[in-house]
Amino acid sequence: MIRPLLLLACLCACPTLSARPAPTDDAPASTPHPATEADARQALDAWIAAFNRGDRATWEAFGQRYGSAMNIDNLLEFRDSIGGFILARREPAEGDTAVALLRERESDNHARLRVTLEPGPTARIDLAGVATPPDLKPARLDAQGALDDVAAFAEAASAKDAFAGALLIAQGDEVLLQGAWGLADRATGAGNTLDTRFRLGSMNKMLTSVAILQLVQAGKVSLDGTLGDYLQAYPNPDMRRATVRQLLSHRAGAGDIFGPAFDRQRERLRTHADYLALYGARAPAHPPGSRHDYSNYGFVLLGAIIEAVSGQDYYAYVEEHILVPAGMRDTGSLPESDDMPRRARAYMRTRGQWLDAAHTLPWRGTAAGGGYSTVGDLLRFARALQGGRLLDPSLLAVATRPDDAGYGLGFTAGEFEGLPWYGHGGGTAGMNTEFRVFPTLGRVVIGLANVDPPVAQRLVDRYLARMPLE
Q: φ, ψ for residue 284 (rounded to 5)?
């Protein structure tokens, strides 16, 4: 399953475009005529034009013309992230509604824009990502053509300062494409290379999953054991009932680690125990097992279980049992305060400018994410998984079997054009990552970036949409 399209839903209240001149003392007031599809189409076209123009003055003029209340900063940042919209086609509509299918200028993603004129007179504007219709999907290319296309796309995006990162594509023992683009450090001008260490974000959850599953394989942890079985002193009794399986599949209701409490204590949250002290009394957001609800704190709890069961610090366990056996010498989770050679700086876009995102990052990566690696090390990880050097293949199959939410046990998973795949992505301010393994093809696709999402995801998705399926 391709990661969900970037979604935007905006509700705007604004007068219809058919507003008549205000009455004068010499002319009686007139009743505005009922809104038509032509009026709605005019509103729709005006919204697209304002969005693509991408400047505050144009949006302010749009708002004044239609009386629309908008978050202009969000609209400008969204436009910067996708490069604007192209009108793919208009779709049938009736009466006071106009509908169009739009394509993101910098990707294959599509969205549907619907404008409905309502009494008031007001206009309701809804925009939501949709799956690309079959007739609008790009043509599949041969093996070299798909590689040339994605390399050219990365080069063009980097030239526009819209991408900074690295991409690696491998098949079996052969690396088909590897490259790096953009700046690792904008202060010094140092460029990204194939040896640049990029922050992984949530991609690091795969390492935590493998660590837990190794302990399952060793008979030290049970997937159906509870948090309370391994952390008997955990404060909240309802959370203690959550199982390891539920934590791995984001069904425990454990919640997030980010928010106001994190922002206040970011520099003091240095160990998994620190996070448990902060959030341990919190009740689950829903009864464990009742639904899928992506949870960073759930993986922090898994990190604490690894420490309790193994008797090792989480980072030491991962180093000894995953990184060393896989040959991953450039991967780790040393604190942000440590001088780490070849670690890219993280940059987030704010009002059109790339700014250092260091002040938003955790002091250190956790079992929920935030470590760093290179494209080469991640290929070694993929090969170690596929080769059975980290987990028994039968247990890996369990971990990469998708549920109805497209998630396994610490891995995203699914089918793409009939091909099974597994992996994980990550993304937050100043980082975006994507890791895909297609086991039946022996193909691995890895994208890493030190700028905001969805740049790495976009690059990987572009290749997947064009790559040969055999």
A: -60, 150
